[in-house]
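Write out a sequence, fold above all:
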Amino acid sequence: MRITILQGDITTRTVDAIVNAANSSLLGGGGVDGAIHRAAGPELLAACRELRETDLPHGLAPGAAVATPGFRLPARWVIHTVGPNRHVGQTNPALLVSCFNESLRLADSLGAASIAFPAVGGGVYGWHGSQVAEAAYDAVTGFGASHPASALELAEFVLFSPEMEQAFKTVFDQRKV
């Protein structure tokens, strides 16, 4: 799987799926979540409300992922995942890795060839950029090794700041074998 790291706006990426760093309610919020909801249009909120009324009455758990159509986005799907919130004691890095793993697994099951991730957990949920990058690296490289027949060809990390972009580049460069 090819990996790219860039600073930019995930809502403009022409990929099969973008990942939303959602909150457990799935009903929008700030940061990446709010930007994706605004760009996708009101249909995304309606789809998320339907998920809450049917499959997810208690919301989406940290580390889990669920997909909706992309609606007005260039991406065909939005994969929503909830990062662990360090500020409320959710400090297990395995839960952060699970966000990336579950998103990759879901994208693969949808037949996606390309996926774009934000820095899940790296905003208001308090994870340091290098911790998010380590979780992302472990998930993407592990997924590629354990799913050789996957259709996923490209994983983009579309980051909101130069500092986060640098954190990802540093970790990915240091961990290359």
